[in-house]
Write a structure and sequence with these properties.
Layout (H helix, E strand, L loop, with lengths): L8 H13 L4 H17 L5 H15 L11
Helix pairs in contact: 1-2, 2-3
């Protein structure tokens, strides 16, 4: 479901370089920040970098990019 949302020019300008580096459109970058922010609010005891890494791991698993962990003995 798409919804039109008015965003400040400042937010759009802030998102531009992050979108470029992340190979995302500006709306997708802002959506990414919103998901990360929601997860951070839902888990206030966890660092944002940890939450981001968990989200990345989940996306990799969903894409079938899994490898077996080999224990050292």
């Amino acid at each position: 479901m798409g919804v039109v949302v008015k965003l400040s020019d400042e937010l759009i300008l802030l998102a531009q370089p992050y979108a470029t580096v992340g190979h995302r459109s500006i709306p997708k970058q802002i959506e990414h920040w919103a998901r990360l922010g929601k997860a951070a609010e839902d888990n206030p005891d966890l660092p944002a970098a940890f939450i981001r890494d968990v989200m990345l791991s989940e996306a990799e698993a969903n894409a079938g990019q899994l490898t077996d962990y080999k224990f050292r003995v």
